[in-house]
Input
Amino acid sequence: MIWGFALILLSIFAIPSLLLCKKPNANELLEHIEPHQGWIGLLFCIWGVWGVTSSVLNIDLFSTFPLW
Output
C-alpha cells in the first residue's frame, strides 16, 4: 500500500506543468516543494534500488513460501 502512495507522490512531482494547467493556484504549493525535489527524487531512487535488490536477493524464498 505504501508503494502506491509513493508512486502517486512521485507522479505529482514529475508532472508539475500538467498540475499547473489543471489548477492555476497550485503554483504556490509547487514553489514550496521545488527546492526539495532533488532530495526527494534521490530518496525515492535509493528506496527503489533497495526494493529491487532485496527482491532479487530473496528470490529463493519463492521455493519455500509460494505466493499461492
Observations:
- The chain has a mean pLDDT of 76.
- Residues 37-57 form the longest helix (21 residues).
